[in-house]
Design goal:
The complex is a heterodimer.
Chain A: H1 3-19, H2 21-44, H3 51-54, H4 60-71, H5 74-89, H6 94-97, H7 101-105, H8 111-148, H9 153-184, H10 189-211, H11 218-226, H12 243-254, H13 258-279
Helix pairs in contact in A: 1-8, 2-5, 4-9, 5-8, 5-9, 8-9, 8-13, 9-10, 9-12, 9-13
Chain B: E1 2-13, E2 16-27, E3 31-36, H1 42-49, E4 56-61, E5 64-65, E6 77-80, H2 92-102, H3 108-117, H4 131-143, E7 149-153, H5 161-175, E8 181-185, H6 189-192, E9 198-203, E10 206-212, H7 213-219, E11 220-226, H8 230-234, E12 240-244, E13 247-253, E14 262-264, H9 268-277
Classes of the chains: A mainly alpha, B alpha/beta.
Chain lengths: ~280, ~280
């Protein structure tokens, strides 16, 4: 086994409980739906009217398939984001808090590899879990909608992938900021980082107002870095929109643009800065 | 070749001088004891050697200059710190797999042999092990590494006397050969005395003494007399005086003698107290 694989495996052992939280929550959610369905069935019978949906025409079915699979990413995406924040804020200080730093640092493996394994698992690990949940959601949706109504596979798949990428990018940017914070602060990195950003933001607003300066506002920059141009197009009459065109446009909005490159570079810089700070800290 | 070279090494914690201008050379193939009171600077010295701490001065470990911590040094150096710093969240098995995968110097045969002698439960989390068991696991890991230098900072802390004896008499003996060097800091000086070849005394961050134990012991004698002859002993300006059941004994230069006095070789702890914590009455 390579050293990196061993590090990943060790980090998986240490954080698998948190990483699997979205799986359990989504599983519980499905269980509740099944119970609710069962109660409804026992009380009202299986008299569900699918006729309205089944009369829909292409491209409406395609657009609905596209957006519904994208929207289905909401709950698992949010959970994965929360877990990413929890894991990244303690990525580089948890060993210190648990008094295990000396043991891990006494192994002949480069700090860069160590931090890369932690970065990969606390951000990429959530991506993997999110992909797993999405694949299950997608399979379920494909089967159910194909049986009971109409379903268009490719737009739905594109919707799911684009939804995933939205969450990947958000977790990458926010996760890498907290990864850096975990190298600087020993505890409560998330709260301290938020307080510092808010503090600097407020201070700059006051200074800009008082002296007519144009100091950059950190939270505005962060918002700009994270926000997407409006995803085309949730408003208007969806039956008039050509689904292939819509998907193509959203590939441009979500993935293929300069901001994506900027987000990747930003995360890379955060990772490198975190590693350098971590590497040069004393181990007492 | 010297495995450890320290030149004018100073380490400050704020106003406290944890290491004060230490210059030291330790040759290969020796078992060296590092003795000092609590807070004397033993752990700081060990951690500085590995670059875990920032310091002033120069350190070379196995010919490699240490300015900051270099992970590659752990291919040749194993370290047991004075605190139990194994990862409590991993099981014994996971810990062993992790260390064996990361260390090219891991000797699986040796690990199996040591494992068969121990009663470590593989599936148990390290956090659920007793302090002694944790120390056993750490020792097992460290002794399974085929390294040139072993740094042991209070290695048997929390172990029962049987395992402590086994460790110092058997296990450490199996690890050691002429090509390897062991630096041990311990409070249980009586238990390691018989295996040590060199001794270092450190106090308030300063190097008090570094010498071959046999040479050191030959330099001094313990003279014991009835208490009424105490004056004769005091006239020899002893390093240390002890009173026991109507007798008085003192550590003096081996070149001097008193008629009818009982003569013994001093123990390491006697010499330590004499040099570092001793007093003249």
């Amino acid at each position: 086994m390579s050293k990196f694989a061993a590090l990943l495996k060790k980090d998986w052992y240490l954080s698998r409980k948190q990483l699997l939280i979205p799986v359990w929550v989504v599983g519980g959610y499905y269980l509740l739906i099944m119970i609710a369905g069962l109660i409804a069935y026992l009380k009202f019978g299986a008299d569900i009217e699918w006729s309205d949906f089944s009369r829909l025409e292409f491209p409406t079915v395609g657009i609905l398939s596209y957006f519904s699979s994208m929207v289905m990413m909401g709950l698992p995406g949010l959970l994965a984001l929360l877990v990413t924040l929890v894991l990244t804020q303690s990525a580089l200080n948890d060993d210190v808090k648990r008094n295990a730093e000396l043991f891990h640092r006494s192994q002949p493996v480069s700090v860069w590899q160590r931090t890369l394994a932690k970065f990969s698992l606390s951000i990429g690990g959530n991506w993997a879990i999110l992909i797993l949940i999405s694949a299950f959601n997608f399979l379920l949706m494909t089967v159910l909608l194909s049986i009971f109504a109409q379903f268009n596979f490719w737009p739905a798949l594109a919707g799911m992938v684009q939804g995933l990428i939205v969450y990947f990018k958000i977790t990458l940017v926010l996760g890498s900021i907290l990864f850096l914070a975990s190298a600087v602060f020993r505890d409560k990195a998330f709260v301290i980082t938020l307080a510092i950003l808010a503090g600097v933001h407020s201070l700059f607003i006051i200074l800009n107002f008082a002296f007519g300066w144009h100091l950059p506002l950190p939270l505005n920059y962060l918002y700009e870095l994270l926000k997407f141009s409006s995803i085309t197009s949730l408003e208007g009459d969806i039956s008039t929109v050509e689904v292939r065109e819509l998907i193509r446009e959203n590939w441009g909005v979500i993935v293929f643009n300069w901001k994506t490159l900027l987000q990747i570079i930003f995360s890379g810089i955060m990772y490198a800065a975190a590693t350098l700070i971590y590497k040069n800290k004393e181990i007492k | 070749m010297n495995v450890i070279e320290m030149r004018n090494v100073t380490k400050n914690y704020g106003k406290l001088k944890a290491l004060d201008d230490i210059t030291l050379s330790l040759p290969a193939g020796r078992i060296i004891g590092l003795l000092g009171k609590n807070g004397a600077g033993k752990s700081t010295m060990m951690r500085s050697l590995l670059g875990f701490l920032h310091f002033q001065g120069e350190i070379e470990l196995l010919g490699t200059p240490i300015h900051r911590h270099r992970e590659s040094i752990h291919n040749h150096v194993a370290f047991i710190p004075d605190v139990n710093c194994l990862d409590n969240k991993l099981t014994v098995q996971q810990t062993l797999s992790y260390v064996s995968a990361l260390n090219p110097s891991w000797n699986q045969e040796k690990a199996n042999e040591l494992m068969s002698r121990s009663d470590l439960p593989l599936k148990q989390k390290v956090g659920h092990l007793s302090k002694g068991m944790k120390t056993k696991l750490y020792l097992l890991i460290t002794l399974s590494l085929d390294v040139q230098l072993l740094l042991l900072d209070e290695p048997t802390l929390g172990l029962d006397i049987v395992f402590r004896k086994e460790f110092f008499n058997t296990i450490l003996g199996e690890f050691y050969d002429d090509s390897k060097t062991i630096l041990i800091s311990t409070h249980q000086v009586e238990e390691v005395e018989h295996i040590l070849q060199d001794i270092i005394f450190i106090d308030h961050g300063k190097l008090v003494l570094h010498e071959d134990i046999n040479v050191l012991k030959k330099k001094y004698s313990v003279l014991t007399l009835p208490q009424e002859r105490k004056k004769e002993l005091e006239n020899l300006n002893p390093l240390l005086i002890n009173y026991t059941l109507g007798h008085v004994s003192g550590i003096v230069s081996s070149e001097v003698a008193i008629e009818e006095a009982q003569v013994n070789r001093p123990t390491l702890s006697d010499l330590f107290v004499a040099k570092v914590g001793g007093y003249h009455e």
